[in-house]
Design goal:
17% strand, Muramoyl-pentapeptide Carboxypeptidase, domain 2, single chain, four-stranded antiparallel sheet, 172 residues, 6 helices, 4 strands, alpha+beta, globular
Length: 172
Amino acid sequence: MSKNNNLDNLSRDQLCQLIEIYSKNWLALDGVWFQSIEQKLGMDEAMEHDANAWRRFTIIEAKRIKEFLNLPEHAGLDGLIQALSLRFYANLNKHEIIIKDNTLLYRTLECRVQTARSRKGMPFHPCKPVGIIEYTGFAKVIDNRFTCECISCYPDITDKNCNCVWKFILND
């Protein structure tokens, strides 16, 4: 039985729809507070606060997912694949994962944040600096042997076929 008895009466399809709604709500909150600071104090100040928030949030998110999945301390590539698939972003952004040897490429093919900013006539979010914090921190919680590199992310786009590409290397 859940803490919210109303959830117990929902079908699997309804629960899946609700997860999508919750994911969109989470991303909307992330965007609203960011844009509030951006509009009042500028992009640099907003990015500083965004980095601080993600430095803490990504660890919280990864620890909860790791515990939920009951992953071992060194979960490896399989653990990272499972964990990435359960992040809030996984419900919102179209992505693909490519594995080669001890390397995982995570490619965001459609990004809800950049699509929304474009639709509103806003400049793209320069997410690379925060993405480095976010993806590195997340991967290190799943398995501290990971290193993370940005291959392509705004403002440094090197792959025009997607919004961003992150490379995770499992070191021995």
